Amino acid sequence: MNRKLFTLAPIAVALVLAGCNSSNSNDGKDDLLQPIVQSKVHDILNVDGYQFRDANGDGKLAPYEDWRLTSAERAADLVSRMTLEEKVGMMLIDTLNAEAYGYIGSEHQNLVNRQMMNRFIFRNTILTQDEINALTDEERQDGGAGGPMGANYKISPMEAAQYMNSMQELTERTRLGIPALFKSNARNHIDPNAKAGINVDSGAFSSWPKEGGLAATGDMALIGEFGNIMRAEWNAIGLRGMYGYMADLATEPRWYRVHETFTEDADLASEIMTSLVGNLQGKDVSSDSIVLTMKHFPGGGPQFLGADPHYIAGQHQSYPAGNFDYHVKPFIAAIDAGVAAMMPYYGIVGGGEWSINNPDSTDLDAGGIPLGDLLHDRVKNTVRVPNNDYSTSVGTPAGNVGVAFSKGILDGLLRKELGFKGVINSDTGIINDQNEVHTDYEMMHNNRAWGLQDKDKTEQFVIAIEAGTDVFSGFKNNAEIRTVVEQGLVSEARIDESVKRLLEVQFDLGLFENAYVDADKANAIVGNAEFQEKAQLAQRKAVVLLENTDATLPLPTASSLFTMGMDGEIAEEYGFDVTIGDDDEGNKVAAATESDYALIRVRVDNIPAVITGDTPTNRALVFGGSDFDELSVLDFTGMAKSESWVITPSLDDIQAVMGEVGAENTVLSVYFRQPYVLDDTSGLKGAGAILATFGSDDRAVMDVISGEFKPTGKLPFALANSAQAILDQDSDAPGYKEGDELYPFGHGLNYK
């Protein structure tokens, strides 16, 4: 396909210093701070001694161009000038990555000029300039195999900023000059298994531990610094919004998205949400804010059997312990802190109570086959318990609809009871063409309107808009939403409500005055040494010492050390005589018999999906997670025997090393992406020392191993003592049943 690539050249630029009204007629009460105003398309307006961007290019100062007015006043004026098509464009947001080298092309023009869009999701991987320079042109022009979120070209921070500036100029050329707002999922964390549509690995950005690792530090001041640093880095490239953070609680260990949550504890999560909103966004959105879209209201943690609602087999949430309010608590904290937007999850909160072996009227189709056919017999008597406190009449039975379609939850609870006045942003893909009949293994489902699969898109849009949804993620077809208004199914006044909320955010961010960034400074800001030093401290503080039998740690200096699952050369820097025991594939290639100690870094993943377009070509799930019949397999013995879990190094190799060097001389560092079970049969509990990590690199671990840094981390969630405990726990309750915990929430040893 031929595609024109271009960047837009500046036409007019004005960088204006602060000024004020010098009139003494009212003792200076009208003095105002002149914001920086910049345009690359139209001349700057000078009115009453102040300067303004001429957004619509008519040479006159319209109320929406006047930064002296409130954002609400400006939004009201702008909405009155917008066509229905322009209004609907505000309610759309979809992935729009930069092309190779940070260029824009025909699709960028289509979404801005034809679909009237100005909200976009940015998912490009950003590498350092040195890493970019090391790539060949062929590598730079390779956007990957596509997948669910399209091509992903690797670019530098400077190129990302140039891309954002080009997009701002493109939107500035539209009739009303409404600026673009780019959002991203988390991209400041070490994640060796990042998934498109879920998160992005840190790349050039400062590399902090995963969310659970930040919680494990217990250091709210450091978490506050994290927020400030992330804000500076994102601002440097013009990335002004985030799909995050996740306020969901890690109460269901089988849910594969536990790695994106901070903790199982609602109070700790609330404290963290308050800090993140305060330091990333601020109580009031301003010109240096990163606006947050907190997710996934009212809490996506209690997934039934741990299955995720990205999949048709994972539609339902369950509340066997009656803890609905417990999961809402962190969202209340975010609202009190001033969060700008909320994202409801795909999952179904209300509806009926049932089990696979005792169904009700709920449709348990899982893509042409019954849900029960995908699940293991051991979970078929587990009862799914709904919460219908804030239900809706829609669905069969009533309330059996995803949260984005539930007026009871969005309007009744979020808006009326909790007083949330911000934007409600759907999760990606709640509405699309009707799904073809297939399982999640065969292809991802593009329409996740769970409970409303029998409705067409028009009906789904009407239900979602009336429920309270303001903006539809993963959608870019203006005509289909516009039609529901033109047909009289939704009033234009209701559309105006959403558009005003959306516009106020862009006014508050100062984008109407200056949407551009200095691309030449981006490389120096993103991931700079000072920022990374703070991130490295967080990585150290995130390491949790679970066991330290007979003071195995810190290891004595100058001892011989056998390593697997890490860079052995880094261990050598700490004065150890190192034998590297594995190859690049993680296979054991040497014996540990001559070493004093062994250090094994253990990682657990699911088999990766091999994707062509939207279609996996192997039996794996696009967004991650185990096979549905292996969701409850979190014990190392079970995972080693499974089809969809991969332990690296293998359990056999780990056990062999423990036998060669002695279990008491073995140090295990386990990356707990989920709350895995150190079961008795695996023998792992016999190790002399066990560390839990949540996104700490080899140097951070070696700092702890060597004693250069004394461990301070605390578990952000409890760990079970058996495979059975995973089956017996309640999806909505923190921890495990009495007698089922190996380590409780908050456990963590230190060096005496």
Automatic annotation (TrEMBL):
InterPro entries reported for this sequence: Cellulose_Degrad_GH3, GH, Glyco_hydro_3_C, Glyco_hydro_3_C_sf, Glyco_hydro_3_N, Glyco_hydro_3_N_sf
Sequence similarity: Belongs to the glycosyl hydrolase 3 family.
Record-listed E.C. numbers: 3.2.1.21
Every Glycoside hydrolase family 3 N-terminal domain range: 156-344, 404-505
Gene Ontology BP annotations: glucan catabolic process
Protein name (record): beta-glucosidase
Top EC class of this enzyme: hydrolase
Keyword field: Glycosidase, Hydrolase, Signal
Signal peptide: 1-25
Domain Glycoside hydrolase family 3 C-terminal: 543-751
Gene Ontology terms for molecular function: beta-glucosidase activity
UniProt cross-references to Gene3D superfamilies, sorted A to Z: Glycoside hydrolase family 3 C-terminal domain, Glycoside hydrolase, family 3, N-terminal domain
Catalytic activity: Hydrolysis of terminal, non-reducing beta-D-glucosyl residues with release of beta-D-glucose
